[in-house]
Amino acid sequence: MRETLSAGEARRVALAAQGFARPVADGRAGTRTLATTIRRLGTLQIDSVNVFARSHYLPLFSRVGSYDTAALDRLLFRPKPTFAEYWAHVAAFIPAADWGLFAFRMEDLRRKHDGPDGWTRRHADTVAWVRNELADRGSLRPGQIERDARRSSRGPWWDWDDVKTALEYLWLYGEVAIAGRRGFERRYGLAGDVIPESARVPVPRADAVRELVRRAAAAYGVATAADLADYWRIRDRKVVMTAVEELVSAGELTPVHVAGWQRGGRPASAWIHRDARLPRRIDTAAILTPFDPVVWFRDRAERLFGFEYRIEIYTPAARRRFGYYSLPVLIDEDVVGRVDLKADRGSGRLLVQAAWWEPGAPAHAADRLADRLRAAAAWQHLDTISVSRWGDATDDLARALGPVTRHEAGPDVVRPIADPRTRVLP
Fold this sequence. Notes:
Strand content: 15-25%
Shape: globular
Structural class: alpha+beta
Largest sheet: 6 strands, mixed
Oligomer: single chain
Number of helices: 16
C-alpha cells in the first residue's frame, strides 16, 4: 500500500472510490446498477430544492448517466423497502439493512430532545396521540393525519404544527419510519411496520461507529479524520479516531501522506482504504449536486480540488457570486467550473442561468460540459437549452452547444460589478 500520494494521485483515488473511473452509459442503467451505486456511496442525501432536479437523483446521473427516475422511485419506495430514510449524513436514503447502525444516533437524539425539558416530554399528549394514530391506521401521509388532527372525536383538536413536529421527532428517535412518498410528501409509519425486524436490531455504539468509519473510508478512498467524521456527521472525534486505530490494526486502513494536505499549517494525517484503486487517469464529465459526497464537505472539496464552494440559495440576490443553485462541474480529475441550472418545464427548456470557469479550466471543458448538458436536458425531458449571458463560461458553452437560444439572467439574479472570484467568501 502506498505511503505517499501526490495531490493528483489523491484526486484519482478519491474519484475512483466514488465511482467516476467507470464509463457513463446513458440510458442503460437499470435498478441493479442504481442499487449498486447507492450502496457504493452508502447514502443519498435528500434535499427539497427542485429548481433543476431533486438532489437525490443527481449523484446517480453524475455516475451512470441518464436513467429512468421512476425506476429509482420504485427502488426507494417499494412496500418492503430495500432503502430507508434516516438522519445519516443529514436526511438521506440508506440501505434499510443499516437501520440498526444508527441506533446510537437515535439514542442520542432521544436523550437530547426527550429529557425533562425536551420538546417531546413537554408535548407528551400529542406524541402519544400521533403514535396511536399510526398504530391504529397504519402508515399515513401528513394530510391524512391533519384531517384527523383538526376534528378528532377522541380528544382535543391537536395543533397541526405540533403533530408535524411530533412525527419528525419520532422519526429521529427511530420509532417512526418513512413508508414512502407521494411526490415529495412523506408517508409515516411505525418503524415496526416498515423496517424489517432483522434490521432493527441495535448495533452497539462502538461497533456501529467503526463500521460507519470503515464505509466512509471505502467510499472516499483516501481521507482525513475530519472527512471520515463528516461522512456520517459523527461529532465525537475521539470515537472516530478509536475506530480509525482499530481499522489500521485490522489492516483495512493505512496511514498515508498526501502532498499539500495540511491542517493548521502542518501535514494532515490521512488514511487510505485497502481496496482503494489508483487509476492512471480519470476520464469523466459530470454535473454534481451540492450534496454529492465529492463536494458536500467543503473543506475536503477545497483540499482535493482547490474549489471554494458555497450554495447560495439563501444568499440575497445582490450578494450571489455564482447563481441561485450552482452545480460543480467535474471534468476528468478536476472541478473546473459551475453551472446554475433551472428546468423551465412550462416551456420545455433547460436554462443555464449562469456558468463560470475555475482558473485553469482546460480548453476542451466547454465541449465536455455541453455534452452533459444535452444529456441532462434529455434526462429531464426538456427539448431545448437556453444559455444566459451571466458568467465567463456562458459564451464558450453557447458556442459548444451550437445553435442555441440566449437569455438574460432571470430576476432572481443580480450581476456582481466585479469578478466574483476576487471577493471574500461570505
